[in-house]
Amino acid sequence: MNQIDGVILRPFPLDPSWSNSRPARDLVCLINGDPDIIRYFGIQIKELKLHTPDYLGKQGHFHEYAELYFVRKGEVTFDLWKMDADEKQRVVVPEGSMLLIPPNVSHRAYGPAGLVMLAVTSQPFRPGSDIGADFEPVGPLPYGLE
Question: What is the total count of domains within the chain?
């Protein structure tokens, strides 16, 4: 059987150096700069699973690229800060929904136990690509976080 040009089947390159797990969560980088994939989709794709309520970026930060989140199970709460207009917003993203955060919007997120979420970016993650821009939470901390 001939292979159709452009069709790719292979294991994803799970690179532990780009993953971040701790007792509260597993963060697995599925794709990070794969040239065969970036022709069609984002450069970085991550899956996050929370075992206990946790912060996803305890300090506010932004990137010079957009981020797209897909909530597969549970919900996640994002605090957003559009710095140039000093506009703040809290967004609760329910299961089965997506959230697009534009470039240069500072954000932090909070998730409950059981959250499963995918994140897609147009740039690969590199140390230092999170630019600190902390701000006060938009409301009370959810999910019993302190």
Answer: 1
Contact 101, 23 (CB under 8 A): no
Q: What is the CATH number of the domain that holds 63?
A: 2.60.120.10
15 is a domain residue: no
| C-alpha separations of 133 from 5, 49, 138 in Å | 44, 25, 14
- Per residue in 85-133, pLDDT (tens digit) is 999 999 999 998 999 999 999 999 999 999 999 998 888 777 778 889 9
DSSP summary character for residue 18: G
Pinpoint the alpha helices (H) of 35-135: 35-38
Domain extent, residue 110, equals 22-126
DSSP labels, 14-56 = --GGG-EEETTEEEEEEEES-HHHHTTS-SEEEEEEESS-EEE
pTM, rounded to two decimals:
0.81
> Is residue 5 a part of any domain in this protein?
no
